């Protein structure tokens, strides 16, 4: 099925966002593992895996629409030097993703591609859960202080 060129371009932009997020989250996850914060390591790693699944869905949809998935372009990646910076950068990445998915959902509706819109809505719901999880950790840090919070992240 030949898809709308503008929508395929948008899907490739979303794919670049997802591939960038995977890299950022994996580095943050491994930094946490290196510091001994196994719970954060696992949590960040699971978020990266979720983003991989999003990338897979986008690639499949681009191919279905007879487009070419572009996997060689990444957006800017921000690596935090400590946990609060990591969460700040991850939050910003999720905010950007949410805005981009909302715009893509509108575009998919405008070009009457409701199947693509449904896929994008599913991914948007995951992104909402991701930002909620990040905000939960940021709230815990603000309530407990960072040193106490970090003691809860060691297994």
TrEMBL record:
Q: What is its EC number?
A: 1.16.3.1
Record bears the keyword Metal-binding: yes
Entries under CDD domains matching the protein: Bacterioferritin
Q: Which organism is it from?
A: Sporomusa sphaeroides DSM 2875
Q: Indicate the family of this protein.
A: Belongs to the bacterioferritin family.
Alphabetical keyword list: Iron, Iron storage, Metal-binding, Oxidoreductase
Keyword Signal applies: no
Give GO MF terms, alphabetically. ferroxidase activity
What broad class of enzyme is this? oxidoreductase
Q: Which reaction does it catalyse?
A: 4 Fe(2+) + O2 + 4 H(+) = 4 Fe(3+) + 2 H2O
Q: Gene symbol?
A: bfr
Instruction: Report the protein's function.
Output: Iron-storage protein, whose ferroxidase center binds Fe(2+), oxidizes it using dioxygen to Fe(3+), and participates in the subsequent Fe(3+) oxide mineral core formation within the central cavity of the BFR protein shell.
One Pfam family for this entry, by name?
Ferritin
> What is the name attached to this protein's record?
Bacterioferritin
Cross-referenced InterPro entries: Bacterioferritin (IPR002024), Ferritin-like (IPR012347), Ferritin-like_diiron (IPR009040), Ferritin-like_SF (IPR009078), Ferritin_DPS_dom (IPR008331)
Tell me where in this chain the Ferritin-like diiron domain is found.
1-145
């Amino acid at each position: 099925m030949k898809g709308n060129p503008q929508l395929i371009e948008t899907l490739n932009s979303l794919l670049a966002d997802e591939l960038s997020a995977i890299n950022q989250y994996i580095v943050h996850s491994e930094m946490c593992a290196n510091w001994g914060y196994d719970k954060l390591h696992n949590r960040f790693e699971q978020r990266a895996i979720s983003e991989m699944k999003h990338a897979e869905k986008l690639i499949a949809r681009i191919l279905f629409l007879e487009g070419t998935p572009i996997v060689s372009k990444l957006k800017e990646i921000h690596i935090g030097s400590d946990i609060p910076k990591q969460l700040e950068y991850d939050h910003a990445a999720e905010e950007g993703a949410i805005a981009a998915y909302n715009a893509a959902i509108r575009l998919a509706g405008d070009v009457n591609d409701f199947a693509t819109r449904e896929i994008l809505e599913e991914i948007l719901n995951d992104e909402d859960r991701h930002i909620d999880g990040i905000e939960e950790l940021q709230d815990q840090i603000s309530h407990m202080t960072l040193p106490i919070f970090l003691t809860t992240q060691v297994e």
